[in-house]
Amino acid sequence: MRVLIASRIYRPEPAAASQFLGAVADALVEGGDEVTVLTATPPAPLRPAPQGEKVKTAPVLRDRDGYVRGYLPYLSFDIPLAFRLLFARRPDVVLAEPPPTTGAVTRVVCALRRIPYVYDAADVWSDAANMATSSSLVIRALRVVERFAMRGAVRLVTISSGVVDRVRALGVTVPMTVTGFGADTAQFSYREADRQKLFVYAGSYSPWHGAEVLVDAFAAFSATHPGYTLRFIGNGTEREELEALAAERGVGGQVEFLDPVPPEQLLPHLSSAVASLATLRPGTAYEYAFATKTYSSLAAGCPVIFAGPGPTGPFLERANEHVSAGWVCAHAADEIAEAMRRSCDEPPTAREREDLAEWIDRTHSLRAVAATVAEVVRSVGAAGRR
After folding, report:
1. Block means of pLDDT (10 residues each) for the chain, length 386 residues?
2. Are residues 182 and 367 in contact, defined by beta-carbon separation less than 8 angstroms?
3. Strands 198-202 and 176-178, how do they pair?
4. What is the pTM of this model?
């Protein structure tokens, strides 16, 4: 079967979507399918490294952090994508990744060429936009585009039942498959490492994450546990605010900001950290989201401190019944500071960290998730052939 994946981001760019789509491509190729990926040219010095699929890149505008994010960068990918899809060798099925504008372009071209497509509704972008803009016009327009992208798909795939409920509330009735979002255990696994006085936040930090609470928590924690470092690895619109807050709280020299790195470079940070950190701001329309960075950390054997609402906390609590997965607390500086103290004063042993990584590999690997998505894509393509 010929499968085409349309996404502004793909491996080797360090992002959850890149890992997910790469794993799906691998699962399709292993099943004998021919996979072509239409994506953006990655930022230097990264270069595509296909593993059986064909990767076709095109130049794209990026923001100052090197990320394809924002109206103009999205358009710089989506407008050429329309022509790339239109003149590509006819696939049996297309798998489209957000943003919704990419889904909308995919719907229009696939309708013209009578090609079925699957849309990855990992989250609801118009809900996230509530935290990024106060413009009701922008939010309404994005919601219209997002509905349009979803309603044209034959199937939707998503990571949690919370997203299903939200999509249904938007009036989208397209069949949905909940796949979860597993850990890329081919990239993240347990490694022996000397433990450092280090906490790591790996991934994007946007308004709906509310990562500023970590700086306040770290300042309080440092009063009783000096000498530690809080390291942000990733990108986000909040970086300047976080840097200013760290300086204001007197911990500017202990809070570091690193650019995104590929998995093989992120793994040593997680292996040596006391714990990784993940947050979700309460009181937003995005409370149903899952902090997917949790999977990578656990796969590396690094326990997680999660603060906020949503399904991530219950997941960690269930995991703690089997292994030492981490700590769950409210999105409040004092509670996070206390969790940091506990992670230092009662750390899991090296054996427990290794057990954690092995448990994630057995029960929540990205391979299994990708195999499920691949079967959905194949079933849609097969039905289209008929």
Report:
1. 96 87 96 97 86 95 84 94 97 96 97 97 81 76 94 94 90 93 88 95 89 97 97 90 96 94 92 97 84 93 96 94 97 98 96 96 90 96 84
2. yes
3. unpaired
4. 0.78
